[in-house]
Specification:
single chain, 636 residues, alpha/beta, TIM Barrel, 10-stranded mixed sheet, 22 helices, 23 strands, 16% strand, binds pyridoxal-5'-phosphate
């Protein structure tokens, strides 16, 4: 046990900062999850992986902790409960979960069952999400909110939802939707409630700033709000107006943006009340940020406030406006998705290979150049390598660059053979590594060595697809905490970037979270003869919904975990990832047709004497078996 090193690892990866009490490193140097947020109840992630392996489940795998979902729902709810008491707010709080944030059935099942006690509801943005949401046993007080653009069919579905007994609120995005709603209402006895999505001047902050403000694609202008109110009144449906809604974007990094938006929306609410309407709910949308880098700042991957501060500000500002305007206190609705879902899952995968300079320890012996006489410039490079030191490394490094360029020119002119070229490349890399090593002793590193450091990192080939498992990392440069699952009692010796197994150069991860900065390399150990696993954390929000099947790598295996009060944990459910045949079917391939084509080709090979009948039969059977396998890399 190397407690000092383990503490260093905690700081190096920042796990105590971004882990929110759900993740840590134990005294054996293993990453653990505390699914209930209690430090003494731990699930060792390497042990989970070992157990799954025994059951025939290989990495990549997504580990799901439904207790973390419950913990986050509870944290949100109790933050509001506390704020309501502290500021003597006379209304209530209720939460809904936005379906789009993670539509996996396993996930929504957990949200609904954990959320029942808190009357948690669901928010949907499409007909498909609505159809799924309607099948869940929500409580009588829970809301089922229909957002997004709606056609007649969607609005008809919402009427059927209300008829089935759900508390459906149709949030209108435009006057046309309301006209259709009113037309249908005339013919129905059970009519859902209506909400109006208001376009605010106040803007969010961060990557999703465009979701809000004057030019947003969402929400009704003030004139449209007034028109909608008039339409409702003309149809004698004013009592159906139940909600005013806004959403200023996801991952709001600065609390003051929320404050401004809630202030504005509270005034809109108060003025609508004063016109004689009585909306019971003010829906303040989602957007609570996740502190992915643990910096608690307004940086894009962080948020400069806690959930409690968010609840306090929301309740205080709304309560203040209601008191000031003398209107009833509404129930405040939150539609947070990211902060509820992000923590609950971890993608774990294995490192298959290490490529690049740092794969070689600095001291390794130089291979002999066995091919006779070597060129003068190669001898010079060898001299540099043998004599570079802390005092001359800048000058010697510059000389090495010159010799290296000269040697390339000589090769292109045909004066060097491949063995010379390989020897020169090897020498040059070693000089670079030594120069970097010596530059590390300087208090202020020269810019050229900072640049050199970036290109000298190793590449760790990880058995996963970024496009499937962390698509936002590729699409919008979202940062996620990444770290090895074990060996934290050992100092990591390599600086590395991570490359995935897709045939796409974009499948490369070269920015990593850090409290004070963004790292361009991750500290990793040199894999030994044991599998080396790394985890991608806080990936529970949006990553599964946005996952794509680049190179036909599909959904990965899943395992759900539960821990009891005695600290015993178990794998409660496993779901196999997409096999090759299902991925092909999803792209319209007919499996029978494929097998038929194979059969023809094997038969021809047998007929032409290239295979024996036995080999032909065997080959066909093996192809049929491979078609059902996991597309990710299996053990060698
Ligand atoms: C209308 C609406 N509500 C809620 C959310 C959830 O936001 P977040 O996941 O940032 O909490 C979104 C997502 O952007 C949204 O568009």
């Amino acid at each position: 046990m190397n407690i000092r090193q383990i503490q260093e690892a905690r700081e190096l990866y920042g796990i105590d900062d971004w882990g929110a009490g759900y993740f840590g490193i134990d005294d054996e140097g293993h990453v653990v999850s505390h699914p209930t947020g209690e430090e003494h109840l731990s699930v060792s992630l390497p042990e989970v992986i070992a157990k799954l392996k025994k059951q025939g489940m290989h990495t990549p795998v997504i580990l799901r902790f439904p207790q973390i979902i419950e913990g986050q729902l509870e944290r949100m709810h109790s933050a509001f409960r506390q704020a309501i008491t502290e500021f003597h707010f006379k209304g209530k709080h209720i939460g809904v979960f936005p379906f789009k944030v993670n539509q996996r059935r396993e996930f929504i099942d957990a949200v609904v069952s954990c959320g029942q006690r808190l009357n948690y509801g669901l928010e949907v943005g499409s007909k498909t999400e609505f159809i799924a949401a309607m099948s869940y046993p929500l409580t009588a007080e829970s809301l089922l909110i229909c957002n997004g653009f709606k056609d007649r069919e969607f609005i008809e579905m919402s009427f059927l939802g209300a008829a089935m007994g759900k508390r459906v609120v149709v949030v209108v995005e435009g006057p046309d939707e309301l006209e259709t709603f009113i037309e249908l209402a005339k013919r129905q006895t059970i009519v859902p409630e209506v909400g109006l999505r208001v376009r605010l001047y106040a803007k969010g902050a961060g990557k999703w700033e465009k979701s809000s403000g004057d030019s947003s694609k969402f929400g009704l202008t003030t004139t449209e709000v007034l028109n909608c109110l008039a339409l409702l009144e003309a149809a004698n449906l004013q009592d159906r107006l139940a909600m005013l809604h806004f959403h200023i974007g996801s991952q709001i990094t600065e609390i003051k943006r929320f404050k401004n938006a809630i202030k504005e929306a509270s005034r809109v609410y108060a003025k609508v009340c004063k016109m004689g309407y009585n909306p019971a709910f003010l829906n303040i949308g989602g957007g609570v940020g996740v502190d992915y880098d643990g910096s608690k700042s307004s940086f894009l991957s962080s948020a400069n406030y806690t959930m409690q501060e968010f609840a306090n500000d929301a309740i205080y500002v709304l309560g203040d406006v209601c008191a000031n305007e003398g209107v009833p206190y509404p129930t405040i609705v939150t539609e947070s998705g990211r902060v509820i879902a992000a923590y609950h899952s971890v993608v774990v995968t294995d490192i298959r290979e290490v490529q690049g300079e740092e794969a070689l320890p600095i001291e390794t012996d130089l291979p002999e150049h066995s091919d006779g006489e070597v060129h003068k410039s190669i001898k010079e490079l060898k001299y540099i390598l043998d004599n570079i030191n802390r005092k001359n490394y800048v000058e010697f490094y510059h000389d090495a660059i010159e010799y290296q360029e000269e040697l390339f020119t000589l090769f292109n002119l045909g004066y060097l053979n491949l063995a010379d070229r390989a020897f020169a490349e090897d020498l040059f890399r070693r000089v670079c590594r030594r120069a970097l090593y010596f530059s590390g002793f300087q208090r202020h590193q020269l810019e050229e060595f900072e640049d050199l450091q970036k290109v000298m990192v190793s590449k760790y080939l990880a058995n996963f697809s970024m496009f499937q498992s962390i698509p936002d990392s590729w699409a919008i440069d979202q940062l996620f905490p990444v770290m090895p699952l074990s060996r934290h009692d050992e100092k990591p010796s390599h600086k590395a970037t991570i490359v995935d197994i897709t045939c796409d150069s974009d499948g490369c991860l070269d920015t990593f979270v850090d409290r004070a900065d963004v790292k361009t390399a991750l500290d990793l150990h040199v894999p030994n003869n044991q599998p080396y696993y790394i985890g991608f954390f806080l990936v529970g929000a949006y990553q599964e919904s946005l996952a794509n099947e680049h190179n036909l790598f599909g959904a990965i295996h899943e395992a759900e975990l539960h821990i009891n009060a005695d600290g015993d944990w178990e794998i409660t459910k496993v779901t196999k990832g997409d096999p090759i045949d299902e991925l092909l079917e999803s792209r319209n391939y007919d499996l029978k047709e494929i097998v038929g084509c194979y059969e023809l080709q094997f038969n021809r090979a047998v007929a032409e004497g290239r295979l024996t009948p036995e080999e032909g039969k065997n080959g066909l059977q093996r192809m049929a078996k491979f078609m059902k396998s996991y597309p990710y890399l299996l053990d060698r």
